[in-house]
Amino acid sequence: MAFVFKPEAPVAAPVFGSDDAVAIRRVYCVGRNYAAHAREMGFDPDREPPFFFMKPNNAIVSVNYESPLTLEYPAETENYHYEAELVAVVGKGGSNIPVESALEHVWGYAVGLDMTRRDLQVKMREMGRPWEVGKAFDKSAPMGPIHPAETVGHLEDAAIWLTVNGETKQKSSLDHLIWSVAETVAYLSKFFDLEPGDLIFTGTPEGVGPVVAGDSIKVGVESLGELTVDIV
Ligand code: MN
Predict the structure, then answer these.
(1) Interatomic CA distance for residues 108 and 224, integer angstroms
(2) pTM here?
(3) What is the CATH number that goes with domain 14-231?
(4) Phi and psi for 58 in degrees, rounded to 5?
(5) Looking at residue 17, what DSSP letter applies?
């Protein structure tokens, strides 16, 4: 059997400090996983737990630490937002994973951006429609190199931050996650069969906001590093 169209190469995310890469399978994202961000979006985190949505794996754009990523302002939006996020990389699959052993399934971590067409996301939300046009568009998930957990350990209280043109917009710590990485893996695995190469964007802290062409974003997680993304 021959493919009518040449299959695309796997989406590859490089492993920091090596020539290896991880083939990305699925990209799960957690919504409203920091209480202060849930509140700024108009929701009560004590009444509504976090939830999941997805992006296609080819929404991932790799960014290295040495040079800025140039990212075009996307079409069909007038309110393009940054969201700084820790990305967890699944290395061992499973379903119904107990929280006590969930971190054994996490192979590494990366710095990520959940770029969002906020106007479209909110419009779809208000109409009770799916969020894809607001969240799952092309190049909506810039991500840095993957740091193996055996090198950096499991990140539990690392700082996470984002600046725009040098001004701090987001500044929090991973211990403010409503669902920790372990709890997220355990919960997600009740609904989906996790497999190696799955990513989990773990949610953004408070301080989300818009960027325009000409802005320069820096996003970082303590012990991983800082990425630069220039909007053009
Ligand atoms: Mn997000």
Answers:
(1) 10
(2) 0.97
(3) 3.90.850.10
(4) -80, 10
(5) T
1 Cα–ligand 1 center, Å: 40
Q: What is the pLDDT of residues 26-35, one digit of tens each?
A: 999 999 999 9
- The alpha carbon of 6 and the centre of ligand 1 are apart by a number of angstroms equal to 32
94 Cα to the center of ligand 1, angstroms: 24
Check if the beta carbon of residue 132 is closer than 8 Å to that of residue 59: no
Q: What's the angle, vertex CA 225, arms to CA 223 and CA 230, rounded to 5? A: 160
Find out whether 213 and 73 touch, Cβ atoms under 8 Å. yes
Domain boundaries, the chain: 14-231
> Which segments of the chain does DSSP mark as H helices, in order?
35-40, 118-126, 132-135, 149-152, 181-191
Q: How far apart are CA 155 and CA 174, in angstroms?
A: 7
Location of structure tokens 């994973």: 97
Using one digit for the tens of pLDDT, what is the confidence trace for 44-80? 988 888 899 999 999 999 999 999 999 999 999 999 9
